[in-house]
TrEMBL record:
GO terms for molecular function: DNA-binding transcription factor activity; sequence-specific DNA binding. Keywords: DNA-binding, Transcription, Transcription regulation. PANTHER family: HTH-TYPE TRANSCRIPTIONAL REGULATOR, TRANSCRIPTIONAL REGULATORY PROTEIN. It comes from the Bacteria. Residues 2-59 form the HTH lysR-type domain. This is HTH lysR-type domain-containing protein. GO terms for biological process: DNA-templated transcription. InterPro entries: LysR-type_TF_proteobact-type, LysR_HTH_N, LysR_subst-bd, WH-like_DNA-bd_sf, WH_DNA-bd_sf. SUPFAM superfamilies: Periplasmic binding protein-like II, Winged helix' DNA-binding domain.
Length: 291
């Protein structure tokens, strides 16, 4: 009988393409991944991975085993989800993945309210820009700014997050739009919708600095570094910023709530979903889900 832990480590190597990447994903050391992979190959009496200087490449057999192992992994996670969903008490740990801007500036300030309402639930919130896999149990519930497409997930639109241009009240060019310089994202986020919107509004005017996340844009705008495109719920709440009039289209991001279909009736998960819906619906800066 194959050791599932060995297969789990092999799956991580196959997905990341390196032993070190697999170690980071599994939160173990490099030697553990190497040992688990070697044990699996020894048990099968066949090589699954070709170890190259900077990467790992699956052998033809490794490709076949990878596909079958993914099916086994999905079945294992399904058993976990179904077992968990059958537990009725509103208690236990629920993991939530949400965009950093919503985690830092919206949800963190409401966690005391959640704790008071559901003292038996340990809510673990991870601020992540990437879309995590609910099928692989990387999170139980997720908030996303792009509509999820996984067939195994249940999706609901909670509202819209409008953006606008903001600058510090002390920004020297505040009253001279032709002299504005802009705070944009760095090259790795070139395809992000708010980056395209901001650069379209900027036109020939220069980008003064590039930062990788909205919280940094917010801090830079407050410090007078230039004009930033910020969510209105964040910019309007700060007395040191002013919303700027501009030509061009308005812009917003949809907020989506997503849960794996096997967990949607779990009492703790249901409580977290209701909490998220209430937070978004109760904030005046977010548009309604029907918009």
């Amino acid at each position: 009988m194959l050791d599932w832990e060995n297969l789990r480590h092999f799956l991580a190597v196959a997905r990341t393409g390196t032993l070190s990447g697999a170690a980071r994903d599994l939160q173990v050391d490099h030697a553990t991944v190497s040992r688990r992979l070697a044990a699996l190959e020894a048990g099968l009496q066949a090589p699954l991975v070709e170890r190259l200087p900077r990467s790992c490449r699956l052998t033809p057999l490794g490709v076949s085993v990878f596909e079958q192992a993914k099916t086994m992994e999905a079945a294992a996670f399904a058993i976990e989800r179904q077992t968990r969903a059958s537990h009725e008490p509103v208690s236990g740990k629920v993991s939530l993945s949400a965009p950093p801007v919503l985690t830092t500036h919206l949800l963190a300030g409401r966690l005391a309210d959640f704790r008071a309402a559901y003292p038996g639930i340990r809510l673990s919130v991870s601020a992540q820009a990437r879309a995590v896999s609910l099928t692989r149990r990387e999170a139980d519930v997720a908030l996303r700014l792009v509509r999820p497409s996984e067939s195994s997930s249940v999706v609901r639109k909670l509202g819209q997050m409008p953006f606008a241009l903001y600058a510090s009240l002390d920004y020297p060019a505040l009253r001279n739009p032709r002299d504005w310089t802009f705070i944009a994202y760095d090259a790795q986020f070139a395809d992000m919708p708010q980056q395209r919107w901001l650069l379209e509004l900027a036109g020939p005017r220069p980008v003064g600095c590039e930062l990788s996340d909205i919280s940094s844009h917010f801090a830079a705008a407050r410090a007078g570094a230039g004009v930033a495109g910020l969510p209105c719920f964040l910019g309007d709440a700060d007395a040191g910023l002013v919303r700027l009039e501009h030509e061009g289209a308005a812009f917003s991001r949809d907020i989506w709530l997503v849960v794996h279909r096997d967990l949607r009736r779990s009492a703790p998960v249901r409580a977290v979903m209701d909490f998220l819906s209430e937070v978004v619906a109760g904030h005046g800066a977010f548009g309604s889900a029907s918009e």
